[in-house]
């Protein structure tokens, strides 16, 4: 046997938790011959609406959260040329979607404790050209939606919530994604509910959601389900220049069963989170703040801060050492102005958003998948303690 066979298996960061139910549903979908947008997408939309406690006409399934963000900004009627205030501590898709909508991103720094966009920084970033605020519920922790909605109300701004980490998140008893004009969810493979690739739009206005649906399928007034059903051929009309952002039944087949286990998987991640908190309490690591009272944290990411002076190891060396211990980790995120494209296009430098810069240079996300066994979690703990002097 090769020597590698004695190594422990590699713990894949963000590994999905897939059951027989999804596998059987995908097979049934394939056997049905209906792979594209059809009855399983419709069912997934109804189930998701019930989960977020909104009407079925307030949701639209799409093929990614990036698509959801883009189409939401178009459907909200935000005129190209306006500015959108967002966080520098996010995935590039948040900012790219703003650019694809013909809008200009303006960054407002995060609160160093919550890692969420700071409402005071939003206020300071508002100009006469500001049209919208795009908060990200980072790691599953809800943003201060009371303050953000008050600022939006005062200045007449739209609010698009990036809920990619926040399928389970609530702020004062209300689901994240239902405060703003739109909430945009991700079902990417590492997210809390996955369809492989996929996304969902939740909108306050049924008319805006109906427009988002038209835009997500070429701008056609009738979708393919109606066109190719048994009701006879129906002409479709193109009423706008739309996009190709629809979700397939094959994707919804996975999502239906993932969503049915959303609560069970959340409880498992919360348990892992608490286990890490307890196991790392005596280490010189920065640990995530506890969830704020009267909120529900989505527990999507468990992020620790590696300050080289305190921990005796640099962040990137820590990442390499975890990899050598066959444990996959993540970085969420290098701040947006660290990337050359945005620096060149906007002249941004990371120092202008110092909290996001420091967090992005120190942060490491540890495995938090519900697919992790107790023994896997103990392996992660032992590796971390071995590196930062436990
Ligand atoms: C994953 C992610 C996205 C993009 O989601 P996709 O479904 O992959 O398009 C957007 N914003 C944040 C904060 C994310 O983590």
SSE topology:
Layout: H1 20-32, H2 39-51, E1 59-62, H3 65-75, E2 83-86, H4 92-100, E3 104-107, H5 119-125, E4 130-134, H6 145-155, E5 158-162, E6 170-171, E7 174-175, E8 182-186, E9 199-203, H7 206-216, H8 224-227, H9 249-260, H10 262-280, E10 295-296, E11 302-305, H11 308-311, H12 315-324, H13 340-346, H14 354-362, E12 363-366, H15 374-387
Parallel strand pairs: 2-3, 2-4, 4-5, 5-8
Antiparallel strand pairs: 1-9, 6-7, 6-10, 8-9, 11-12
In short:
By secondary structure, the protein is α/β, with parallel strands linked by helices. The protein has helices at 20-32, 39-51, 65-75, 92-100, 119-125, 145-155, 206-216, 224-227, 249-260, 262-280, 308-311, 315-324, 340-346, 354-362, 374-387, and strands spanning 59-62, 83-86, 104-107, 130-134, 158-162, 170-171, 174-175, 182-186, 199-203, 295-296, 302-305, 363-366.
